[in-house]
Queue: 4 jobs
Job 1
Amino acid sequence: MTVASSASAPRASAAPRAAAVARPRDPDIVATIGATPLVALDRLFPPARFQVYGKCERFNPGGSVKDRAARSMIEHALSTGELVPGVSTVVESSSGNLGIALAQLCNFHRLGLICVVDPRTTAQNAAIMRAYGAKVEVVDRDPETGEYLPARIARVRELLRTVPDAYWPDQYGNEHNARAHHDTMREIHRALPRAPDYLFLAAGTTGTLRGCAEYIAAHELPTRVVAVDAVGSVIFGPPEPWERGHRRTIPGHGAAVVPPLLRPHLADRVMKVTDLDCVRGCRTLLAKESILAGGSSGAVTAALLDAASWIEPGATCVAILPDGGDRYLDTIYSDSWVESRFG
């Protein structure tokens, strides 16, 4: 029997090595912010007259449009080194939704958070923030103005002086709040066959207003922006005499201080609504469309109902609905609460 030497024996061919392919990164919870649905509101506004769509921001993971601003501001600060995971503490003033959005983002990025709120913030909202690990501080009205926002800002400034490695996103003055809403308007623009004739949105920090309006201007869209403000708010100028007796209790739109982000010319029209208008708007939206929406969504809906008299036939309107109504069950959707305040 002849045995071949190792030198002459044929070698088994090695199996070809699979090329290393980088596995795409799976989306995390932060990656789900944005791309919210645009739904027809045909039961509330019959399309035979004009078409209305609602941009449902409650489908963001933190439950509101504020997720967009929170991500934009926090990620920018992380990229510049102003925030350091495991070291820095974010300090911010909020009436609810931004606080929740920041709490989720800060928990995700291993950042501390102190959120300064006021008594209008619901117990549920404060509990959600604490569940994410945030510290919640409640302040009372500013003694000079009788408003909550100046008192919240004053407390934020105190905390910045005393808390090590503290960082204030300053939602009222942070350009990255507004820039987040270039994407909001881009999503609306791409979802429709043509640009809407009207965009209705609630004005608070005016980040949504400015970001959407800047996108509209940059792309030369024919869309007219209707800013919905609260009666008694100072955003677009001092309140008229008839407004001064109205005290706002529903958060999410309006402000006691003019936001530095504001560019008044970006709003083609301003409409003001009362707290009772918000309640009616929310309950009408629920009854007609089965959408359980929050207070500022009710404000936008109320403004649209009033605008029906002057919107031209065949127009297309989009209403940005900032949040859901599950955080307002003890207020807007409580008959006893409504009766105690409005009779």
Job 2
Amino acid sequence: MDLLAETLAVGGVRGTVGARIEANEPWGILWPGSAGAAFYAVASGTAWLELPSHPPRQLMPGDVVLLPNGPGHTLRSAPDAAVVLQQCTEADDARARGGVLRIGSGEMHTNILGASYDYDPAVSTQVLATLPDVVHLRANHSGSGLDDTVRLLSRELTQPQIATEFVLNRLVDILLVQLLRVWLTEKPAEARGTWLGVLGDPLVSVALTKLHEDPAKPWTTDLLATELATSRSTLTRRFRESTGRTPGDYLTRWRMDLAAIRLRDTNDTVDTIARSVGYTSVFAFSRAFRRVRGEAPGQYRHSTR
């Protein structure tokens, strides 16, 4: 099993192309916060990114930046460039329809590709939600697939053909994985404490893979440690260091995520769903679900529909 691919898929992570900014100085845009993640790739020119509680940072040509938790933020041509209300309105419209936002006249010196990522609110075990407020990668990523994907995306945007929207949305999904790969390789220290940090610990990575491959198995920490040929204390310590949780707590949350999706999206009985995630008793499953989700399975099914 590809652990990252599985977690992104279950988490319902989907990307869509946002606004493409073509601007001539001066310019400034305030983007309101959103439920998903925001992404930018600077094709040409420069920009300044500002977020609450963070110092302004300059984005250079070839830079890519991911804002995993969708905070409100400002993009400007310079730190002192004014934010224009009309430009903000036009920018919000361009982001919603995946259009081009042209600011100013004459030759456009700045070209920025934007995208957004949504994920399933029913799933608590999310990759993006654990990342830092800003994931910023400078240009020249050693000829990585990230550079190639950004170039393909830029070409598709500037030279649209048949099914361009379909291609763009697939490229945006690929773009996210390429960015995470480069970030994990270039900045492993920043990845510690995030979901991606588990990929840096072979023991925890294998443990998670086993839990994901067979969530219905009657796992205990002792059984998992035995299968990994390690001690219970070592597994618990390293698991907690990487995920912030014990193996048992993580497994329960993963099981409840899988159950929540089926309760919302299928007509399977509660008994069937309970057994699929490792509970032989509907009562035990309902108690665990209520403890994690705050409501009984039947109530959750009704409220989410």
Job 3
Amino acid sequence: MDFFRRKKNASPDADAPPSEPLAGDSTLRIIGDRASGKTAYLASLAYWPNANPESPVESVTPVGEESQELVEKARDLLEQGLELEPTDLNADIDEVKDYTLSISLKDRFSWLRGEGKPVQLNVSCKDYAGEFFSDLLYKSGDSRLEDYLEDCCLATGLLFLVDGTTHRKDRDYAMGMEKFLMELDRSQIDLQRRRIALVLSKCEQSELWVNRHQPQKLAKARFPQLSSQLEIWSRSGNGSVDYFTTSAFGILGKRYPEPNSKRLRRSRDGTTSVIKKPKLWRPFGLVSPIYWLCTGERHRELDRD
């Protein structure tokens, strides 16, 4: 789950006065089923390995001790080809890890509404257990679930992370999303400001990678019921929806690409993998949905490989 605050850095002109912070804050949450890759997404984002010199991202900086744990998870577990432990389902909402990251874009890419100013995204992320989402379908009256829903209702933006290989769970996701959106509708937040990003994870898998630059088409093909549920919500005037593809591990090679991951198991619940070649580890598409959720604008350079 995520809280994002966005602001502008000082002008590139050293003699100019500092820019005022961008008016308004964006409060976001990450939601997703078990094994959708939420913790791997956050750890890879915090670690930001083998950064592409052509990327618009200047740096990703963890802030605070808890955030540094993400870097340690990436270095000590992911980089060693080991699995991350599942997030603890039994933690109370106040005990859930809260990570803060600062994402800076390079000056030449840091445009925002045509103003050409550097942009910094300060991201505070709560890593909830994936079982919370499935509990929407099968539980009611659970105090932890109610706390979770109340916390999500505070958000103006939601990043819904879905393992792109779990298309056989499309109906379950659509049903869960319907109940989730009903809870959002009961909140008092200005619905016109709310955004939902449907983000397909694990797109290093070949059947997903070939369509990574057509995220909306890919999402609607693999998750038609879920996509339809979100489109109905958007057309009703409740907010806006956009689609993204990501990979925490990336791929190997350009002419003959293959996943930079070793598959451990695959089932209806998705694909579980570990990093194959850590020295060539380069994630794909992690910042793009964050940028859109914070600004309401698509940064096409962030969608590039």
Job 4
Amino acid sequence: MFRKRTGSIRVALIATVAFSLTACGVATGLGGDVERISGIPLASEVSAIEDPRSFRGELPLQLVDDPVEPVAADPVPELPAVVTDNQGTVVEVTDVSRILPLDIYGTLSRIVYELGLGENVIGRDISSSFPEIADRPLVTQDGHQLNAEAILALDPSVIITDTSLGPWDVILQVRDAGVPVVVVDSHRSPGNVEELTGAVGAALGVPGLGRELGERTRAQIAEAEESIATITPESQTRQLRTVFLYARGSAGVYYMFGQDSGADELITAAGGYDVSSEVGWKGAKPANDEGLIAAQPDVIIMMNKGLDSVGGVDGLLEKFPAMAQTPAGANRRVISMNDDLVLSFGTRTPAVLNALAVALYAPDAL
């Protein structure tokens, strides 16, 4: 039996533009009157296929960029703001006119924009690519490497970051130059969205707006989870066994993300069965044939560019021949999603969870 709980995603989550997977070679059988989040049909408005394990083929998802929806227009920060950051450092922020939010996920920049302070953002990391920030100069090079010269040239009045970007010496250099640096938690999950948003709001002198945005996002996540439950099997034995694989083929990097990596909570919240807890795969560790065979995944989740970097599913099977001995490999069942969204765990989390759930249990709706 599938859980049939009522509930709909609030209007604030519904994308203003339609999305089609036709360009990816996936047909859509839904009419234009179906409500969508970031272009993907709502889970509560589609039907789960009778046997989700029988579906064959890759599903490349490219979520559209929902417009930023600030919780306030022209907020007036209460400064100075004195906070104790995630590393226990007491930081005083006296000026938020030139904000530089930096992390590997692009989460922090989106939060700053949703707080209504987007006009004060002066630069971006490579993962921050939504339209409103796209014209800001990059301060990362070779992917996710911080560039001290580029950062200092922008003369930031405050930097909001975590430990996901490096080298860390760059952050220390910028701090030594007198720029206030607030380090927030680098852990990302649906469960700590409110805490993360609150930390950013407090550091920028808008603690009330930080709480408001956190509460709004948490409520939207809860509604997304309720919608997802309508197509998710109640029994774990019927939920799709799922693993998250991170790959950068050009660098020979292949990691399977397990317990406490954030990917485990992503899979569970989207209605999948996180295999990592069953096989004892903790954190992010190099992927290997033995681990994949032990996991016996029905589905593999990846980032779009990561899958492209290994030559698609064919390249993945060539790299890990034993994958053919798993249901995911035999069925070529790989779901890929925007690199900057799938593990971002911020204000876009409801859209990410909805898209994954639909791809898992109602793939014919895409």
